Amino acid sequence: SMAERGGYPHFMLKEIHEQGGVCRSTLKGRISGGSVDLSGELSMDEHTMISFRAVHLIACGTSYYASLIAERIFERWTDLDVKVDIASEYRYRDSKITPDTLVVFVSQSGETADTLAAQRKARACGAYCLAVTNVQGSTLARCCDDVLLLKAGPEIGVAATKTFMGQITALYLLAMYIAKVRGTFPIEQESELIDELLQIPYKIETVLEREHLIEELASKFAFSQNFLYLGRGISFPVALEGALKLKEISYIHAEAYAAGEMKHGPIALIDPNVPVVVVAPKDSLYEKTLSNIQEAKARHAPIIAVGFDGDERLASDADHVLCVPPTLEEFSPFVTVVPLQLFAYHVAKKRGCEIDKPRNLAKSVTVE
Ligand code: AGP
């Protein structure tokens, strides 16, 4: 009913709008005295954390894209060898899983069959298994050595949105905590990073207030048949997630590429009928992303960019810009993903799709 949906026409829209709160609740009680502290809830002790040599992040779907974002953060803040894989691949391949490997299983439901099977394999290899999940009593939570919960509340829409937000929040906290214990965290930046992390929920809410602009843009492109999504660095997985949202609920073909890969093939797809969505926060790769925008423009593709407020260059290079409040390079996915979720939602709505229960999809994939 409308009441269950909190007055929103769909659970997905309600859940998108809950994301500032999800980020805030997932941070709550985990930062004290200007520093991340998970010692009260994780059973792994300092000795265990120092003994790790590698971290593997294993998941499916949207949880996999959250893991790809976390990969960049683990690389930046820790000295661990970082690897990310799709659970259905990891369970059958020969990657080296050792007792000094931390394997993080990221699953909203904690019931995804492939993720559970990957966990059984890692456990058999003697790895330390940690579940990052939204469901406390889930099979995954019960099978792992340790659990880090997201505080997203139940997610009803089949397309994951607020749990993605909860996952990245929890994974950033985990990376920060392990890095601190291992002594690799950039201490001189700590207060700046923590202060900014605490601002993120408000920045997410600022993006949500701009929904009407995103809806307007969605009406312009609702009947395009193909979309290309591009991003570099930490924005590449954001592009992947944006394209997945569009595919799942609007049934439009959308492909995401690392922007630098365009020249290696996908540029052949570009023409005036293929809108290109570019995730372009002002970060260390910004100039490179702008030159990819130029390449797509030269082939007359309509350019929709997601960028920071006040970015005049982006505004003049792209045909349409969805602006988000500026943040540090590390945290841009928290804000850039939101307009892409809303864009997918409004495109699907304009097309009359069944948003909360898209065809062929189940909320949780409990068979292989
Ligand atoms: C996301 O929108 C999907 N419906 C799907 O990819 C999902 O993220 C995936 O099945 C993983 O589910 P889990 O997080 O419950 O393991």
TrEMBL record:
GO terms for molecular function: carbohydrate derivative binding; glutamine-fructose-6-phosphate transaminase (isomerizing) activity. It is an enzyme of class 2 (transferase). Signal peptide: none annotated. Its EC number is 2.6.1.16. GO terms for cellular component: cytosol. This is Glutamine--fructose-6-phosphate aminotransferase [isomerizing]. It is found in: Cytoplasm. Coiled coil: none annotated. It comes from the Bacteria. Its main location: cytoplasm. The active site is at 363 (for fru-6p isomerization activity). GO terms for biological process: amino sugar biosynthetic process; carbohydrate metabolic process; fructose 6-phosphate metabolic process; protein N-linked glycosylation; UDP-N-acetylglucosamine metabolic process. Catalyzes the first step in hexosamine metabolism, converting fructose-6P into glucosamine-6P using glutamine as a nitrogen source. The chain holds residues 241 to 608 of 608 of the full protein. The keyword Endoplasmic reticulum does not apply. It catalyses: D-fructose 6-phosphate + L-glutamine = D-glucosamine 6-phosphate + L-glutamate. Residues 44-184, 213-358 form the SIS domain. Homodimer. Keywords: Aminotransferase, Cytoplasm, Glutamine amidotransferase, Repeat, Transferase.
